[in-house]
Design brief:
With about 475 residues, the protein is of the alpha/beta class.
Length: about 475
C-alpha cells in the first residue's frame, strides 16, 4: 500500500515513521531490534523518530539500531547525559529540512520526555530527556526566520494528550502540524490546537495517515488529510517483503510459533480502564503467587487476538506472549499498607487523567486482580478515588497487604510498579512469561472478560481514549 501511494507521486512523497519499531514482537525482542532493520529499510522510510520503546535495550543498542536505518533520524530532546564523554550533546539531529515540490519544509522531532518514568529506568541510562518547550521555540525560529521554511512539522512520540497540550502552547507558534504517535489514536480529522493541528495514525499496520499538501506556483494552496484503512482485499502482499519476513523469522520460527494455550474470548488491550488481556495476566499472577493483589503495568500496545468465528478459539503463541508482555521481567512481591495503595492509586490516576495534558503518561489505568477500585476522572488530583476494596472488603488503611508485579530494572529495591517504600521486597524466582505459560497449561482454553474490577463514575467502562473535549472520538 505504501509503495502504491508513493508511486502516485514519487518525487514529492515523504514516508515518515513515528517510533516504537524495535519492540513489540518476539523477533524484535530476541534480536534486540536488529531483525527489524532490514524490514524497515525495505519499506523505505524517509524520516524516522525514536519512540519510548526504542530505549528498551539500552542507549548503545538504540544508537546501533537507529543509525542502521537508511532514513533520516530526528530528535531534539534526547541528549547524552553527564556520564558520557559527549555529555550535553544531542544523540540525533534535532531537525531535517527538505526541498520538495518547490517549497521548503522543516521537520523537528521529539520523543516522550517522560520515557524514564514510563519505562524501566535502566533502559534510559546515559540519556537525558527534556520537555519540548525547553528548545522548541528556538528551532521554530531558526527554521522560520533563517532557513525560510514554508511549512514546519513536529514529529512527536508523546501520546495524544501531550501532543494536544503542546499544540496549545505559544512556544509552538509557527508549526503547521504535529504528526504524532505513541498512543495509537485513530485520528480521522486533525485535532485543531491553538497553534497547530494534531494527527495520529492508529496502530498495528492497520492504517496509514496520509497528508496531501497542494502546491500551486510555489504557494501552498490547501491541505487534505485522511486516515486510510490498510485493506488486504485491495492491496496484495508484497512478495519481496514477504520473503524478507520469512527469512528473518526462520531462525526463531519453531520457538515463536509454538502454541502455549488457547482463548475463547478476544484478548484486547484498547480500553483505558480495564481489559480482558490484562485481566488474564493478573489472573495468572494471582494463581501462581496468591498475593492479596496482582498487578499488570497495562502496557499500551499489543494487537488484539480474536477467536476464529468457525472454531470459537484463538491460539496463543510464544510470539503473541512477547506482544502482550514485551519484556520478560521477573515477578516481585512487596508489602504495602492500605494507605500506600490508596495514595499510589491516586498517583496512577493522575498519570492517566491529569488536567494538564502534558503531565499525562501515554498509557492507561494500572490493571489488577484481588482489588476493586471506583473513581471519578473529573475530580481534582489526589481525590479521584471513591473507594477501594481488597478481597471484597473495604481497604483497611492501616493493614499490610501483599502484592506482586513485574520488576522494573533500575528502580530502587523498595519501589514496585511505581509504588515507593514497599516493605519486604522479594524476587519470586519466576518471570512473567513462565507464569503465563504455567497458567495456560493448567487452564487453557481461557475466557477472560471485563469484570468491573475498575469502575468509573463519569465515563463508560469501555472508554477508548484519555483525551476529552477536543472533538475527537476513538472509533
Amino acid at each position: 500500500m505504501i509503495n502504491e501511494l508513493r508511486d502516485e507521486n514519487p518525487d514529492n512523497t515523504l514516508v515518515i515513521d513515528g517510533g516504537d519499531c524495535f519492540q513489540g514482537s518476539g523477533i524484535a525482542a530476541l534480536t534486540e531490534g536488529k531483525a527489524i532493520i532490514p524490514l524497515m529499510n525495505n519499506i523505505g522510510y524517509d524520516i524516522m523518530l525514536p519512540g519510548n520503546w526504542e530505549v528498551v535495550y539500552g542507549k548503545e543498542m538504540m544508537m546501533k539500531d537507529m543509525f542502521a536505518y537508511n532514513g533520516v533520524k530526528v530528535c531534539a530532546n534526547m541528549f547524552h547525559d553527564t556520564k558520557d564523554e559527549q555529555q550535553g550533546e544531542l544523540i540525533f539531529p534535532p531537525y531535517f529540512i527538505k526541498h520538495i515540490a518547490g517549497i521548503k519544509i522543516g521537520f523537528i522531532g521529539y520523543n516522550d520526555p517522560m520515557t524514564p518514568k514510563r519505562q524501566s529506568p535502566a533502559y534510559s541510562y546515559g540519556i537525558e530527556f527534556t520537555f519540548p518547550q525547553k528548545n522548541i521555540a528556538r528551532y521554530i525560529r531558526l527554521l522560520k526566520e533563517y532557513e525560510k521554511c514554508d511549512m514546519i512539522f513536529l514529529l512527536t512520540h508523546m501520546g495524544m494528550a501531550q501532543q494536544v497540550g503542546l499544540a496549545n502552547m505559544p512556544e509552538v507558534k509557527g508549526v503547521d502540524y504535529i504528526l504524532g504517535a505513541d498512543t495509537h489514536e485513530r485520528i480521522r480529522k486533525p485535532v485543531e490546537g491553538t497553534y497547530a493541528k494534531v494527527t495520529e495514525p492508529g496502530a498495528f499496520g492497520s492504517f496509514i495517515s496520509k497528508l496531501d499538501i497542494v502546491i500551486e506556483n510555489g504557494k501552498i494552496k490547501e491541505h487534505n488529510y485522511q486516515l486510510l484503512d490498510v485493506d488486504p482485499l485491495r492491496y496484495k502482499e508484497d512478495e519481496e517483503m514477504k520473503m524478507l519476513v520469512k527469512k528473518t523469522r526462520e531462525p526463531f520460527e519453531k520457538k515463536l510459533s509454538k502454541v502455549i494455550g488457547k482463548t475463547k474470548n478476544p484478548l484486547v488491550r484498547y480500553y483505558v480502564i480495564e481489559t480482558p488481556m490484562d485481566n488474564f495476566i493478573t489472573d495468572a499472577i494471582m494463581w501462581k503467587f496468591k498475593p492479596d493483589i496482582a498487578l499488570s503495568n497495562g502496557f499500551r500496545f499489543c494487537p488484539p487476538l480474536v477467536p476464529d468465528p468457525k472454531t470459537g478459539i484463538a491460539e496463543i503463541t510464544n510470539d503473541f506472549l512477547w506482544s502482550m508482555l514485551p519484556v520478560d521481567s521477573e515477578a516481585k512481591l512487596g508489602m504495602a499498607t492500605g494507605r500506600q495503595i490508596w495514595d499510589w492509586m491516586e498517583h496512577e490516576l493522575e498519570n492517566a487523567f491529569a488536567k494538564e495534558p502534558e503531565k499525562r503518561f501515554g498509557g492507561w489505568v494500572i490493571r489488577f486482580n484481588g482489588m476493586e477500585v471506583n473513581f471519578t476522572i473529573e475530580k481534582q488530583e489526589g481525590k479521584r478515588v471513591n473507594w477501594i476494596k481488597v478481597n471484597k472488603e473495604p481497604v483497611d488503611l492501616l493493614k499490610q497487604y501483599s502484592f506482586v508485579a513485574c520488576e522494573r530494572e533500575g528502580d530502587p529495591d523498595t519501589t514496585l510498579c511505581r509504588m515507593e517504600g514497599v516493605k519486604e521486597p522479594t524476587k519470586m524466582g519466576a518471570t512473567l512469561h513462565s507464569v503465563i505459560e504455567e497458567y495456560l497449561k493448567e487452564f487453557s482454553p481461557i475466557a477472560p472478560k471485563m469484570e468491573g474490577r475498575c469502575t468509573v463514575t463519569d465515563a463508560p467502562h469501555d472508554l477508548l481514549t484519555q483525551v476529552k473535549g477536543v472533538g475527537y472520538e476513538f472509533r
